[in-house]
Amino acid sequence: MMDWWPKTKAVPFVVEEVQSSDFETLAEIHARSFEHGWDEIELERLTAQEGVFVLIIRQPNGAGKRLPVGFIMIRAVLDEAEILTIAVDPQVRGQGLAGKLLHQAMFRLYGDRCKELFLEVDASNDAAMKLYKSHGFRKVGERKGYYGSGDGDGTALVLRADLV
Description:
The chain is an alpha+beta fold. It has helices spanning 23-33, 40-47, 97-111, 126-134, and strands at 14-17, 52-60, 66-77, 80-88, 116-122, 138-143, 156-162. It has a single domain (14-162), classed as Aminopeptidase (3-Layer(aba) Sandwich). Strands 1-2-3-4-5-7-6 form a seven-stranded mixed beta sheet.
């Protein structure tokens, strides 16, 4: 008997480039993930900027379609990049999807010869801090009162991961 074999069937999530038809769903995911979520127009505007790319993670819906359940948006300039946002639908969190998105984005940036990846995160967001630490991010700065409201004191931490 194969005791190590998963008892449940794994759901095949796929990471790929964003399509123009995805932005409405991404705006809904962002709104469910953040107090001040970005709308479809804002997401499209940001994505159109030079150096910005978006990776999405899709889940099969049972009808042969793969629906977006999360995404990461990154801006790269020369040999540095910044995570503008990362969001996973609350209904599918806890399955490592944000980590998969982050890993794929870092792999792409490495291939594009980016040396460093930066981000800002609310210091009180324990789940995000755990995710970023597990991917090699470390604190390089702090902005007190950056976030106007929320459960914490509004402190934003600036984190950096070295890609090379």
